[in-house]
Design a protein that fits this description.
The protein is α/β, with parallel strands linked by helices. The chain has ten helices and nine strands. It has two domains: 172 residues, Rossmann fold (3-Layer(aba) Sandwich), CATH 3.40.50; 91 residues, Pantoate-beta-alanine ligase, C-terminal domain (Pantoate--beta-alanine Ligase, Chain: A,domain 2), CATH 3.30.1300. Strand 2, helix 2 and strand 3 form a beta-alpha-beta unit. Bound molecules: pantoate (PAF).
Length: 281
């Protein structure tokens, strides 16, 4: 596995090897890899002959009071995992490699970013769009892989490539859950044993919504209330939002008809966890 940190070196390497855009699959990450990331890498490897992974904890997508400094990092472990998966190239830029000291340009998606996480993490999706477009310009892949756990991120990025004619196919990959149902996240490392137990109310709340839906309930407010009930019985859980929205344009729905996403963000102690489930009526 080739490891590079400078954008210019990466371009040079790919050009020297004569690797074409059509062959390149790309998995952008912030590291501290888990099985969720590795599922993206495996799909990428399967569908492309040249697989690039990036690890970059992007300061632009963290708010001033968020966990940028505390965000878990373990580059040696990540390298070993990616080597084992047969990744061809790992791109690990520093902040200086990515952002000039007088960097002054950003990409802003203005509709889907207003809701859900975007309403609480101001500027977050600008940071995501900006770094992902930069990474796309550096790596120049044909396909890029993102997890559905960050459902809003996936939809925002799909919208960005559509609106800006970015020649990259955005591929969404299913949420990977631990044996107990908790969605895998690098942030799960913040949880104590007791908090992790309480956090299981998150997938339980989603399952409860799905159960009601399967019984025929179509009122979003009823599903939301049930989920809130499941979560509020937990110790130390603070619900930031529970929302049911159109799965494509993220518009609010009252009566579930087509495909919707049931999404939530919950603080468990200091860890802010998100999860979602797609329901199709
Ligand atoms: O999902 C992530 O890990 C990040 O938001 C991404 C897409 C790598 C951009 O920094």
């Amino acid at each position: 596995m080739k490891i590079l940190s400078k954008p210019s070196e990466l371009r040079e390497f790919i050009e020297q090897k004569g690797i074409k855009r059509e062959e390149i699959g790309f998995v952008p990450t912030m590291g501290y890899l888990h099985e969720g990331h590795l599922s993206l890498v495996r799909k990428c490897r399967h569908e492309n002959s040249f697989c690039v992974v990036s690890i970059f904890v992007n300061p632009l997508q963290f708010g001033p009071n968020e966990d940028l400094a505390a965000y878990p990092r373990d580059l040696d472990r990540d390298k070993a995992l990616l080597e084992k998966e047969g990744v061809d190239l790992l791109f690990v830029p520093t902040e200086q490699d990515m952002y000039h000291p007088d960097f002054s340009t950003s990409v802003k998606e203005t509709r889907l970013s207003r809701y859900m996480c975007g309403a609480f993490r101001l500027g977050h999706f600008d940071g995501v769009c900006t770094v992902v477009l930069k990474l796309f310009n550096i790596v120049q892949p044909k396909r890029a892989y993102f997890g559905e756990k960050d459902y809003q991120q996936l939809q925002v990025l799909r919208r960005m490539v559509r609106d800006l004619n970015v020649p990259v196919e955005v591929v969404g990959c299913p949420i990977v859950r631990d044996h107990d149902g908790l969605a895998l996240s690098s942030r799960n490392v913040y949880l104590t044993k007791e908090q992790r137990q309480e956090a299981l109310r998150i997938p339980k709340a989603l399952e409860e919504a799905e159960r009601l839906f399967k019984e025929g309930e179509r009122r979003a407010s009823v599903l939301e209330a049930k989920m809130r009930e499941v979560l509020s019985a937990g110790k130390g859980l603070k619900v930031q939002y529970i929302e049911i929205r159109d799965a494509d344009n993220l518009e609010e729905v009252e009566e579930i008809k087509g495909r919707v996403v049931v999404a939530l963000a919950v603080y468990v102690g200091k860890a802010r966890l998100i999860d979602n489930k797609i329901l199709e009526g």
